[in-house]
Design a protein that fits this description.
mainly alpha, about 350 residues, chondroitin 4-sulfotransferase activity, four-stranded mixed β-sheet, globular
Amino acid sequence: MKPALLEVMRMNRICRMVLATCLGSFILVIFYFQSMLHPVMRRNPFGVDICCRKGSRSPLQELYNPIQLELSNTAVLHQMRRDQVTDTCRAHSALSRKRRVLTPNDLKHLVVDEDHELIYCYVPKVACTNWKRLMMVLTGRGKYSDPMAIPASEAHVAANLKTLNQYSIPEINHRLKSYLKFLFVREPFERLVSAYRNKFTQKYNTSFHKRYGTKIIRRQRRNATQEALRRGHDVRFEEFVAYLIDPHTQREEPFNEHWQTVHSLCHPCHIRYDLVGKYETLEEDSNYVLQLAGVGGALKFPTYAKSTRTTDEMTTEFFQNISSEHQTQLYEVYKLDFLMFNYSVPSYLKLEW
């Protein structure tokens, strides 16, 4: 081999080594996310060589190439929901794609089930306790059998479930490509009122009263009593709304996960979710996921009547004392969630367009 050619090959090897070192030093994390701006794929976008569970079809295969007619009919509905997300991300790309790269911290809400090839992005106040219980049953390998036998407090212990940010970058990319990814959403203002009622009107939530209630009262209430400033136990909904739309709040720190927007928690404009379940059709959508995972015969979504659940009528009452100016500003904060998940503007709002 000629000396000149040998030298060129040697320099190429050196350049590759330098490049690898630089990338490892300066780039914290790079993921490949299927662009939401690409045309929607109507069939299985992952090809026939997708890694499957031994002896069965993967959830992705069941979703995109369903054998059973009822699965096929339901798949049409979920395709429409995916299209809605895609169209919203495209139409509002400046807002929805402020960053093109996600860090591991952005993936802490994505729970991974290795055995059934599922990734679930949990959204607080959208049945996430019961879905975490289900994920503990699915990933527990026989340790748990009845989801409702798992205490709610145990379901929220981080160590009981593995999240996507705990994997290496190649492992993250593989799972994002090969596993069925799903989330559940809820009418944004109904979810917001549910969060307020749970965190600020329940006496046992003293940690939220101290952490957020004292701050809200200090900023939003004139002539607050020393007790209110010290305990933060009696935040009014109007004060909570004023806190959320306050530019100082949004500059200071991210919203708490219980009232953070869904698109900021789960990043659906960066991560293409295969299923978007809705709180309004919770049982049907949940059992569809379980059916796709091949466990529908043995496991069902736990349902029970909860008399304290926040309803649309209740939400309407909470917004009666919110000024039209504040309603408009609050809608702008949650606008992408309304559009992305196809929720119409509530009739009780008096928006200033």
